[in-house]
User: Fold this.
Amino acid sequence: MNRNGTIELETKPSVYGFAAVVGTKEGDGPLRDYFDYILEDVRVGEDSWEKSESMLQQYSLSMALSNCGLKEEDIDFAFAGDLMSQCTSSGYAIRGKDIPFIGLYGACSTMAESLCMAGIFAEKNIGKYCAAITSSHFCSAERQFRFPVNYGGQRTPTSQWTATASGCAIVSQHKDAPYIERVTIGKVLDKGVTDANNMGAAMAYAAYDTISRHLKNTNQEPNDFDYIVTGDLGQVGSDMLYELLAADGISIARNHKDCGLMLYDRERQDVHAGGSGCGCSASVLCGYFLRKLKQGELKKILFTATGALLSSIIVQQGESIPAIAHSVELTGAQEV
Amino acid sequence: MNRNGTIELETKPSVYGFAAVVGTKEGDGPLRDYFDYILEDVRVGEDSWEKSESMLQQYSLSMALSNCGLKEEDIDFAFAGDLMSQCTSSGYAIRGKDIPFIGLYGACSTMAESLCMAGIFAEKNIGKYCAAITSSHFCSAERQFRFPVNYGGQRTPTSQWTATASGCAIVSQHKDAPYIERVTIGKVLDKGVTDANNMGAAMAYAAYDTISRHLKNTNQEPNDFDYIVTGDLGQVGSDMLYELLAADGISIARNHKDCGLMLYDRERQDVHAGGSGCGCSASVLCGYFLRKLKQGELKKILFTATGALLSSIIVQQGESIPAIAHSVELTGAQEV
Assistant:
């Protein structure tokens, strides 16, 4: 039974295979050595950005399978979602594959949401191998949520750069690190942010709520983790998160990492407040953190991907932007 | 463990509470006596269709709770999704409620998808009460997928009428009919339909695949069920489903019901090929079928909601429309 959204995965399912695929800009960033594949052309040979993004998910799935010696037909269930309306990238990526599919929508929290669900299905022995997949693409997302890229609109200092990237994790009951120990499911919170160019602010409170609940429900504190990892709060959202936690006497500044701040060199790569998009936390998790956990260089992290449930149409109607965050506690070696 | 997507729910969780809320047109149809609430004004006092649709979900959730004597704080997890881009109706409906939320996207299959997930969470004792919610609204959906309603575009004979409706089911381990016996998770299939006004055709093959798998995996035949219920294939899709199954020597014509054909009086209400939208199968399930199962008037149904994963943008780029269907086997009395 859960405790205020926190679910204990007693069998500690393994993230048995994983892979991260990124675009050229992401492949030119500080984490370039950690990705399975860096695209030479972000169009991936397709004639639309939506189709390109869909290809990213197909790449990350096939590389995650290959990394652990599995085939598509070994996957019992796939959980996937993305930022595109009607989760286009995921639906078209999985189309025609002989894999039972559960479509998710959690905006940029989708890597954590899908990993929670894949972890639960593996833990409960519903599926032997369950895949969690997500993606984002700068060009498809900017066109949908803000302006077509060709328009060349000026970006505000609080804006974040939607990553062109995809991550896939395959969860099973193998005894191979990294392991999923516990997950905490997010709540939809809204503190009144209406600026579609300030996603970090919209998401900070959701991160605060989920991280606080996870720590409280599991009787842990930030120092129990090597890193408290957030999805893509960027600089603005990260600062807000510190303030919110500080008011409760909790400090994570020492061991906090934000995927949106890790993926790019903010100065050199001109990404303003940092990276964002489902693919941001997905590629940093599946490229960097899962690898470090597998290699034993990290013992334990709390991965909290945050999503701004931004709908252009309802924000244009004057509504503010709700957000959600889901947490996944991952360990690098089985705890005794 | 599953068998090709079919999951046995051994504890047979109960659909403990449920409610259906519909618009004026739906409330004027043949099922008018089965709904919990018929709106007098499909705007529900809101100033946009998206906000109105979000209210529908709030209504169906609060009525489902009230029907079984629960409160919002009793709900451990809510699974919800809808047709709006970024699942706007669901995110805003659940916003600010203190309920861990798992956002789904399955287009018109969402009532079955959410019920599968709520059933699994209840079966595995992850949550005591898990809600499955979805909705659609004629005016928000037509504007997004086809034309603004005010435009008054001519509708083709194959087109279906997006229902203004919402359904909510609350699943738990109580010993109260109806029960969820088994579920089968759908695969994303695409047989090349490109006409956004012919959703039934796009979805028929997905329904065929999931129903066939469910029957085969559970060693049952159509006559074992009072009804094989499809979500919203309408007349065109239902006819295609009969043909596809007939080629395998399976006949469901005798006991098939399609929610899209039940919700409206097609002649009198001018809905062409039938109803559609997440709210169509949701309201017919939560209004009619669950009630009949609870009252013992039905023994067993196979509820298969179908979703066309229609993305306007990628269809305009020349892509065809993939579809998915999920099945939920429901019984009215515990089988011995």
Notes: Chain B touches chain A through 61 residues (CB under 8 Å). The mean pLDDT of chain B is 95. Residues 188 and 324 of chain B are 5 Å apart (CA to CA). Chain B is about 35% helix and 20% strand.
